[in-house]
Amino acid sequence: MNEPADTADTSRFIVTSNRGFAAYAQDELRLLAPGTKFDELIAAETYVMRIPLGREAAIRTIAEREPIFLRHMHPVDEAVSIDGTKEDIAVVTASIRKQFQNAPSRSIAVQIRKAEGCRGDYEPVELREAIAGTLSEQFGVLSVVKDAERIVSVFIAPGTAYIGISAPEQNLSDWPGGAVRFRKEEGQASRAKFKLLEAEYAFGLDFTRYSKALDIGAAPGGWTSLLLDRGAEVTAVDPAELHPELLRHPKLTHMKRNAGDVAFPSHTFDLLVCDMSWSPKQMVKLILPLLDALRYGGTAIITLKLMHGKPFQTVKDSVRAMQPTMELQKAKQLFHNRDELTVYLRKIH
């Protein structure tokens, strides 16, 4: 039996957070729409959300006040019954073909996810190819991996396939489940580079627009390497060694000192980044004296470690400590964050 999800005043979405942080995302969503309920699909990570708002109103409400811990969402335009046999492919494809008539586009990305332990007589790739082939044949639509006009989302759970078609921005991320994947490069200083790459994407930044950057607690140099790749002159502050490949770069200055022992002329940098494994309180105390070296309108990207189970208070206290100099633009737990989140701030005073 097919079960349409939307009414005028209620809708369903598949919502995903980093594992172990779903409760925080749910708290944020309930604040946006009291009465919102959740059914678990993947433990402490992925849920069916029933929100007392219509589809478009829900998307608009969540986009306007994007939750810190909500990594990804997609609408449930229809939920169809499945039994794990190859017949599921025809059932799901038929549903999508019908929906697509009301949401045509020139290009699509087909994203298939499934609950843990959910087994069937077919692989996700078979379903993906069937959907893409059908839409190409009947509507002339191009199937792509990135930069699609529409995303066709299917979440396979025991007995049910949750299906939705949406614009990428309506999903908060155009990666399946918000799991942002980057390819590791040969000689890469550290995987921490992925965290800053994702921040650039998530916050809508372009690091090529920054000319002078200050990296606090830089070793072994993952964030420094990305900023050098983007063309910035980077001052990396850390008593530990940087990756040897970085030391030959003509735009790198490595200050082998503790951040509390350095000072710079006012308005020297237009970007400050910090990814230190310190408590937020210690980290902010260290950064405060260095904010004078950031130009007005300059950007700060800072990782806040979540050490005491009070993430919302951690963000509030950390941002308040940097006011009125800095203004929070966005806080987000990225896919590459673990027990932490990332904040994007601008210098206004």
Structural class: alpha/beta
Compute the CA-based radius of gyration: 23 Å
Task: Give the fraction of residues assigned to helices.
Answer: 25-40%
As laid out across the biggest beta sheet, the strand order is: 13-12-11-14-15-17-16
Order of helices and strands: EEHEEHEEHEHEEEHEHEEEHEHEE
Q: In CATH's first tier, which class of the largest domain applies?
A: Alpha Beta
What name is given to the CATH topology of the largest domain? VC0802-like
Low-confidence stretches: none
Most strands sheet: 7 strands, mixed
* Count of discrete structural domains: 2
- Total count of helical runs of at least 4 residues: 8
Give an overview of the whole structure.
By secondary structure, this protein is of the alpha/beta class. The protein folds into two domains: 2-178, VC0802-like (2-Layer Sandwich); 192-347, Rossmann fold, CATH 3.40.50. It is built from eight helices and 17 strands. It has helices at residues 22-32, 55-64, 87-100, 124-139, 192-202, 222-229, 280-287, 311-322; strands at 2-4, 11-16, 37-42, 46-51, 72-75, 78-81, 107-114, 142-143, 150-157, 160-166, 212-216, 233-237, 252-255, 269-274, 294-305, 326-332, 340-347. The strands form three sheets. A seven-stranded mixed beta sheet has the order 13-12-11-14-15-17-16, with helices on both faces. The longest helix has 16 residues, at 124-139. It starts with a strand and ends with a strand. The relative contact order is 0.11. The mean pLDDT is 94.
